[in-house]
Amino acid sequence: MEVDTEGRPLFAPAADVPLAFRVESRKVPVPPHRMTPLKAAWPKIYPPLVEHLKLQCRMNVKSKAVELRTSHFTTDSEALQKGEDFVKAFTLGFDVDDAIALLRVDDLYIQTFEIKDVKTLQGEHLGRAIGRIAGKDGKTKFAIENASTTRVVVAGQKIHILGGFKNIRIAQESIVSLILGAPQGKVYGNLRTVASRMKQRF
């Protein structure tokens, strides 16, 4: 055995062998109303999955699902979970560019809740609550997104928020207060205060 001047053994450099993983697969169901947008955005969806995460993927039109699978090229043990989160974010209604952030940035989450979890509303009251969250031409929703640096999707009675843990909480508090009937002016004021505090922190 060869040793260096200090008496430490000399070994040949280890070969660069890709990490061996068991081949796993996941199936992400796609709602019927998201199939057409998925087909249109597919050229933008599969490159991050194949090139960045080194996964094998296909769109199964018959079973309305996106199928993901690891292979011997996959090096990241969390690749399959990240890929599933990315596709799931798109099926919930988020834009492809926003969903890609889940692959590139750590500590991003999706929070989903329903209006009835906050307050039981029916008929016109429910419609008005959804209208208050969106605002005229979507202004209120954009204001919440910009102040809390999150992305919000209002899909019927369900609300999906994509962002960091603290940011999701800020956006959720604003949406909850709108559902409970708080005037939009008051919510805007609270958002301005929160946004200025966040700027001071960073």
UniProtKB/TrEMBL annotation:
<keyword id="KW-0694">RNA-binding</keyword>
<feature type="domain" description="PNO1 second type I KH">
    <location>
        <begin position="112"/>
        <end position="195"/>
    </location>
</feature>
<dbReference type="GO" id="GO:0043248">
    <property type="term" value="P:proteasome assembly"/>
</dbReference>
<dbReference type="GO" id="GO:0005730">
    <property type="term" value="C:nucleolus"/>
</dbReference>
<dbReference type="InterPro" id="IPR055212">
    <property type="entry name" value="KH-I_PNO1_first"/>
</dbReference>
<dbReference type="InterPro" id="IPR055211">
    <property type="entry name" value="KH_PNO1_2nd"/>
</dbReference>
<dbReference type="InterPro" id="IPR036612">
    <property type="entry name" value="KH_dom_type_1_sf"/>
</dbReference>
<dbReference type="GO" id="GO:0042134">
    <property type="term" value="F:rRNA primary transcript binding"/>
</dbReference>
<dbReference type="GO" id="GO:0000472">
    <property type="term" value="P:endonucleolytic cleavage to generate mature 5'-end of SSU-rRNA from (SSU-rRNA, 5.8S rRNA, LSU-rRNA)"/>
</dbReference>
<dbReference type="GO" id="GO:0051082">
    <property type="term" value="F:unfolded protein binding"/>
</dbReference>
<dbReference type="Pfam" id="PF22891">
    <property type="entry name" value="KH_PNO1_2nd"/>
</dbReference>
<comment type="similarity">
    <text>Belongs to the PNO1 family.</text>
</comment>
<dbReference type="GO" id="GO:0000447">
    <property type="term" value="P:endonucleolytic cleavage in ITS1 to separate SSU-rRNA from 5.8S rRNA and LSU-rRNA from tricistronic rRNA transcript (SSU-rRNA, 5.8S rRNA, LSU-rRNA)"/>
</dbReference>
<comment type="subunit">
    <text>Component of the small ribosomal subunit, ribosomal RNA processing complex (SSU RRP complex).</text>
</comment>
<protein>
    <recommendedName>
        <fullName>Pre-rRNA-processing protein PNO1</fullName>
    </recommendedName>
</protein>
<dbReference type="GO" id="GO:0042255">
    <property type="term" value="P:ribosome assembly"/>
</dbReference>
<dbReference type="GO" id="GO:0000056">
    <property type="term" value="P:ribosomal small subunit export from nucleus"/>
</dbReference>
<keyword id="KW-0539">Nucleus</keyword>
<comment type="function">
    <text>Required for small ribosomal subunit (SSU) synthesis. Has a role in the processing of early nucleolar and late cytoplasmic pre-RNA species.</text>
</comment>
